[in-house]
């Protein structure tokens, strides 16, 4: 079954061969893009959908979320808005609620948030473990995530569980926990930050994960300058996420590496941190991704459009740079070339905005602009 999407007023392809086209069309064949280009050259298809001048772009690629969780942290958010600082310690509240939840409750909560994201155009989503923090709860979190998410990351090294000895806990993460999750996850991550894991402990986790063939990611430089970025680059991590506080050396290291700087503007706002230096990173030549960091503590939103608008309005990115970072940038952070792009052979993931151009994502912040969404060739909105 082929579908011709025509009447596209502005088509963002992220394909260097086409860039942004006006008066364009896309043909889907099953779960793949068969063709994208100027409308005049479009081939015939079994069905035709006219989007009447609207803007079309790849579906969002959200490369950072924490959606295997139970419970709620509204009280912590209210305290923060009243002046309390965000600390890693709040993670333990969600760990307790997650351990108390049944598999069915965790799966239903995850599915609800993934569906919320999809309705807003997120067609490829990574999510993490990290609220289990023992072998059994990390293993079931990974299994539940693997049922729904496109990409799953093991984050046993999210926090030393209250009362545990840090060194023994790192040994547990590097041995039995990694063994228990390895079949369900592609990535391993570590929260390298004061109050979580130090540089040596984080390095041990990354080395153990790499030994098992997992790709690496790092939470780094979220609450202050620290070793996270340099550690990620040294270990060849695909991505270092947060990057809110960066030294000049950190920026240079990112610019000279394949490690993507994944920025989480909704988290910076919700934790009342400064916005990550997106402009500085791009000017230095680093690859930048934008992601939601959807989680109940530091960033409780699944809206990639909100992240794009914030990156434009507050971080100094152009609309084109922010849209690229939230699509192709996310794909780069996940080391994928089949999503975040509209060209023949790519996954048939795209969104239609109820607007004539992607500029409206920042020009009309907060307005729900999702008109239609296809994921794997199936129209879901
Ligand atoms: O990316 N920084 C560590 N982990 C999450 C926060 C998790 C939480 O507070 O529950 C983050 O912001």
* Major sheet size, sense and barrel closure: 8 strands, mixed
First-residue to last-residue Cα separation: 19 Å
CATH architecture assignment of the largest domain: Alpha-Beta Barrel
CATH class call of the largest domain? Alpha Beta
Percent of residues in beta strands? 15-25%
Rg result: 20 Å
The hetero molecules present are: N-(iminomethyl)-L-glutamic acid
Low-confidence blocks of residues: none
Average per-residue pLDDT, rounded, comes to 98
Q: Name the overall outline.
A: globular
Assign a percent range to the helix content.
25-40%
Counted up, domains total 2
Order of helices and strands: EEEEEEHHHEHEHEHEHEHEHHEHHHEHEE
Question: What name does CATH use for the topology of the largest domain?
Answer: TIM Barrel
Give a count of the beta strands, DSSP E runs of length 2 or more.
16
Can you say what the CATH homologous superfamily of the largest domain is?
Answer: Metal-dependent hydrolases
The structure class reads alpha/beta
Binding site for 4-imidazolone-5-propanoate: 73, 131, 158, 222, 298
Organism: Amycolatopsis suaedae
Main location: cytoplasm
Binding site for N-formimidoyl-L-glutamate: 131, 295, 297
